[in-house]
Amino acid sequence: MIFKCSNPNHDLDTEFVCMNETCQESRIFCFKCLQNEKHKSHVKEIHKIENFQNLLCNQIDNLTNELEQKINLISTLFIKFKSAFQVKSQINIKQLNGLNITEISQFIQDQIRIQNESKAMFQLLYRSTENVVQTLKMYINELFYSDHPIKKVKKESITGYRIIHSFEEDQINAIEFINQSNLMIVGYESRKINIYQFNQGQIKQLQKLKIHKKSVYSLITMKRTNEFFSGSCDKTIILWEQFDDNQWNPKQVLTGHLGGISCLVLNKYEDLLLSGSDDFTIKSWKKDKEFWICSQTLTGHHHYVCSISLNENENHFISCSKDKQIFIFSFDDQKQLWKQCQTILTRDGGRRLCFINNSEFVFQPERKKKLQIFSKNDYDSNFIKNKEISIYTGTSINSNKSCFWFFPQQYIKSQSILVNKSSCSINLIRLNENDDYEIIQHIDFQTNRVIGRMTENGEFLVTWDDKTKNLQIRQQRDC
């Protein structure tokens, strides 16, 4: 691996490699470059090119050997621990014969205490080892599953979206459609909610609602009853209903969260609501006759809950957060409760995810040009990452700014289209007959604050961004 130095004034072969992670200079350079002290601050991380491969191999070997020694030590200690615990927990009946009732009672009480302490200790050990297992699985997937760049569809087969209407609007945080997309519900930073008639891309304001005390963060609509929920920074969820005069009024206020309501998901029977919050929790709400009650609070995330998604059978849901964890929950029919059945550790926090079907979901790491695909494996029914596909993140002056978290992922099953935002770009991706993900269009808004929603039939895409400050309506077109 010998090349001419990239500095045209040196006219020497490269001799050295820089291994410093933050170095901004050329990684491969000649002796004159070294003399110019461009790598002076990290000279210990400069190596000869011929030693480069051996150096990398030795570093990996040392790390794996150290880890292997730790694992062997844990195995040895566990065998000793198991043996000692079995001896300690054995009961000698002959010893009990010499005790009176009070002493036997105290002995039983001590054994119950030991059992409870042991359970807590075992659970702690299990959680620790489970984290190790999940970390190993994550890096195995990283190493064995190579990137699968997204396939570009030939131009003649692309279905794209073009702007048909655009007008200035205040900051929007959420958009939803109701009544077969004839109505559009819009939630604003200013805490108001506007109801629009939506007719083939033409909109007309019908009503303005202003009950929330702070910004509206999330919306979810019903199909069976023409009702909808709104979640707010004021920590409440409001259920709205439409009366005979076609006016919307609050029907119930759901309280209990200690932070803003970042995401809402409703099942197809419209008797289960899941809410994610800034308070790091997820609440499950059940419909009891005409009103809703909180049936369960799920904890475990260590940061804001950014996104939730139900699978097709609605017996599992997933959640993600900036804490670099994806949780998978399953529903226990006997106990009628959700239980966490898997934790997936990720390298990066994520803003959005959604199920494609019962056995596959997609996850968007923050500010990454890759969309991750997770599939259920046949061995233990756990989800593992099986590939990554390239997506667009767009361009922005503030490239280091975190991705604005509103705008949930949306999968339009009838069109097999995934609507995915990453940083400054919306990626419209189709799942084709071969189960390959194909990019059909990407829209660069040059700002990370983009909100949007597609109609259920996939014909219209409505967005708002803080660069144009316009509500833009795009319609599907064939190129």
TrEMBL record:
Signal peptide: none annotated. WD repeats lie at residues 209-241, 254-286, 298-339. Keywords: WD repeat. One of its GO terms (cellular component) is cytosolic [4Fe-4S] assembly targeting complex. The keyword Nuclease does not apply. It comes from the Eukaryota. PROSITE patterns: WD_REPEATS_2, WD_REPEATS_REGION. One of its GO terms (biological process) is iron-sulfur cluster assembly. Pfam families: WD40. This is WD domain, G-beta repeat protein. It comes from Paramecium pentaurelia. The lineage of its organism: Eukaryota, Sar, Alveolata, Ciliophora, Intramacronucleata.
